[in-house]
Amino acid sequence: MIPVLAPLLVVLAGSGALADKKLDAAAAELRAAYASGTRQAQQKALDAVVALEQPGAVAIVQAHYATASQELRASRDAIVQKTFTLERKRDMLSVMEVRAERDPSLGDVVARLRSETGALGQEINELGTKRRAAQARCDDLGDATERLFARFSASTTKKAANTLWEEAEEHPEHGVRIAAVEMLGRIGGKGTALRLHKLMAAVHRERMGKKKELPKLEAKVRKFEERYQREQDQNEGRASRASQQQYEAVKAEPAALRSELHKLAFLVSAASEAGGRSLARAEEKDLAKSLKSLVKLQGSSKGKLRLLTLDLLAAADSDAVRAKLREMLAEEDEPLARAELIDALARLRDAEAVGPLLSTYLADESWHVRSRAATALATLRSKAAIPVLIERLEADEGRVVTDVRRALESLTGERFGANAATWRRWWKDNAETFEVPEEEPEPKGSLSAEEAIGVTFFGIKTKSQRVLFVLDVSRSMNFSMVPRDNPTDDPNRDPDWPQEGEDSRLEVAKREMIKALGGIGDGGLVNIVMYATDVWSWREDGLATIDTETKSGIVRYVEALTANGGTNIFGALQYAFDLAGVEEEADDGGEWSEPLIDTVYLLSDGRASVGVTTVSDEILSYVRERNRTAGITIHTIGLSGAQDAYLLRSLAEQNGGAYAAK
Questions:
Q1: Same domain, yes or no, for 276 and 329?
Q2: Is there a contact between 13 and 60 (Cβ–Cβ < 8 Å)?
Q3: SS3 assignment, position 636
Q4: Which residue, 198, 194, 130, 192, is CA-closest to 164?
Q5: What CATH number has the domain bearing residue 343?
Q6: DSSP state letter for 54
Q7: Domain contains 239
Q8: Dist. CA 347–CA 315, nearest whole Å
Q9: Is residue 240 part of a domain?
Q10: What is the rounded CA–CA span in Å between residue 519 and residue 464?
């Protein structure tokens, strides 16, 4: 019996809805078909359930849909994670094959990597088969739901819909609630979008209530991590078993709470997507009425709920919604709301938004809005944007120049850096014949035309002069940059330590750090966050304004860094956002303020091993939430085969940054 399905059907079997013998028989046939039948047999059994036209049939379909949708999400997530890991292993294999030609002793490592890449490829293929099967079940069950509701009378429709609403609003399992929400989005109906918004708001308030407990709990964890780090520093990286057990006990409650917040955030997102889908499918009169109510709610809401309402609208593929969002953008005074509205129009692929973006928002008073406008024009694949973006390279400064450059590269596939003169020459020669490709092309050319001014860290370049570096100084940073037997990163294995003539990861990171500091001019803002088991910063009272003396002081500090302890990636990111002045999400409706910095470089050589959470998806969820209003670009650098390629690459992709694997 499928875990989610079993308890739900046991309950349903004892209810009046499943009392009818025909319904019981149809439910049994469908269970058998999904247990071992072909898709044809499954569809036949599903048709038999639909043909009964009973409200209880909805509960049967919904239970199977809950299982299928969870399997679909799990397989999708696993494919992404394993694909990123596979790509990194293939890169390592290429490096090791070259090294093995000079050093035959590496033959066993090459053989192992070949075996691992082959096994990973097979796993991905098998997961792809599972994903396709789960997608097919979701499609069939969703279609069956729509057919059922199309056959119901008005009174039966109300009764059947109430079954789904009860599951969506009250079921203790998140997976079942999400499935019910998704199905409600498919069937739609009068007022469904508004009710899904109400559900979304209720779950959000539940999250906010739970979050109030976190600061005090996490403060205890941070205090213990400081003590834990001292113990490791004093004992060559080791800590007593008692300390490890105490640490796990201290972080157990906040870790469970972070996990619960992650699940609730997923439910909020599902309600938003389903609400938008329902709104787009609504009849014209109901759409107009619901849209009017949602816009009013968006205007009167506070804090994060206002943004969540925009998410729901942005999920509605409707010309009426696009027109309303453009109207809202034209009337909006608050910079954050303008930026979010621009994002919403980009999500909806609204071609009519290109004109206002070019004429107004690329020159907005807020860098935050200008940045979002440039990114939106790349998403909308606008040829008309190219000459305007070229001129913005000289009109703007700092981080926005980097965003404009990236938009130009996305639209053209060319790489002329921030050199406006070179871009102008290229455009003059190509304007008449050039067509923007539908998908972003792989960049070509070189960056030789780009002037030297700017920060470069492990090859990732930015014009920003407000930068925060987040450096891993865990014990494994003492290991060799040569990837002999990674990703084991075992300090008891000699091959992991640098051999004669080799650099440690820490030594390479220090050199790159000092080089990067050279790209920050006088007046720039900077700080460095170090993380191992504990997290601390070079300057603990905020950001430093760069001058010659300050830069020399940072260089001396970096040169003296040592490495010891675990890998607290969550704690490092939390500390970085605090330093940047990024507030945790709240419903106080307070005035939004721009972050103190606009660019972060995060370096890691391993997977999260300590911290309130070490789960990659929970870390990503936290950053997505915290950075939404800040708009900070996060670049990531992974050293060694032990890095969490999925986490680092996803952090960069989801936060407008670049990822470099070394």
A1: no
A2: no
A3: strand
A4: 192
A5: 1.25.10.10
A6: -
A7: no
A8: 8
A9: no
A10: 9
How is residue 635 annotated by DSSP?
Answer: E
> 429 and 524 share a domain?
no
Q: Whose CA is closest to 158, among 119, 181, 187?
A: 187
Q: Is residue 122 assigned to a domain?
A: yes
Dump the DSSP string for 137-184: HHHHHHHHHHHHHHHS-HHHHHHHHHHHHHHHHH-S-HHHHHHHHHHH
Query: How far apart are alpha carbons 402 and 409 in whole angstroms?
Result: 11
Q: Which residue is it, tokens 């050279």?
A: 518
Same domain for 219 and 328? no
- The tokens for 140 are 């069939």
DSSP states along 403-432: HHHHHHHHHH----TT-HHHHHHHHHHHTT
Does residue 554 sit in the same domain as residue 514? yes
Q: Which helix (H) or strand (E) holds 31?
A: helix 21-36
Q: Are residues 446 and 464 in the same domain?
A: no
Cα 171 from Cα 43, distance rounded (Å) = 27
Task: Count structural domains, the chain.
Answer: 4
Phi-psi region of 522 (alpha: psi -120 to 50; beta: other; left: phi over 0): beta
> How many residues are present in the chain?
662
| Per-residue tokens: 467 | 């930068």
pLDDT, residue 567, reads 96
The model's pTM: 0.89
What are the residue ranges of helices labelled H in 282-334? 284-300, 303-314, 319-331
Domain boundary among 133, 153, 187: 187
pLDDT of residue 592: 64
- Residue for token pair 């034209």: 330
d(CA 403, CA 407): 6
Distance, in Å, from the CA atom of 469 to the CA atom of 457, rounded to the nearest integer, reads: 9
* CB distance 535 to 572 below 8 Å: yes
Examine the fold and report which residue of 243, 265, 298 is the final residue of a domain before the chain moves on: 298
pLDDT of residue 590: 52
CATH number of the domain to which 511 belongs: 3.40.50.410
H/E run at residue 268: helix 241-281
- Separation between Cα atoms, residue 583 and residue 23, nearest integer Å: 53
Q: Which residues of 421-459 are buried (b: 16+ CB within 10 A; e: fewer)?
A: ebbbebbeeeeeeeebeeeeeeeeeebebbeeebbbbbe
**Intervals of the chain under pLDDT 70:** 1-19, 443-453, 483-495, 585-592
For residues 598 and 625, membership in a common domain is answered with yes
Can you give the pLDDT at residue 540? 87
Asked if residue 243 belongs to a domain, the reply is: no
Q: What is the pLDDT of residues 452-465, one digit of tens each?
A: 457 999 999 998 99
143 in the same domain as 36: yes
**Residues 117/96, Cβ–Cβ less than 8 Å:** no
486 plus 560 within the same structural domain: yes
Q: Which domain holds residue 413?
A: 318-450
% helix, strand, coil for the chain, step of 5: 65, 5, 30
What is the per-residue pLDDT for 109? 83
Cβ–Cβ under 8 Å, residues 64 and 34: yes
Q: Is 82 left (phi over 0), alpha (psi -120 to 50) or beta?
A: alpha
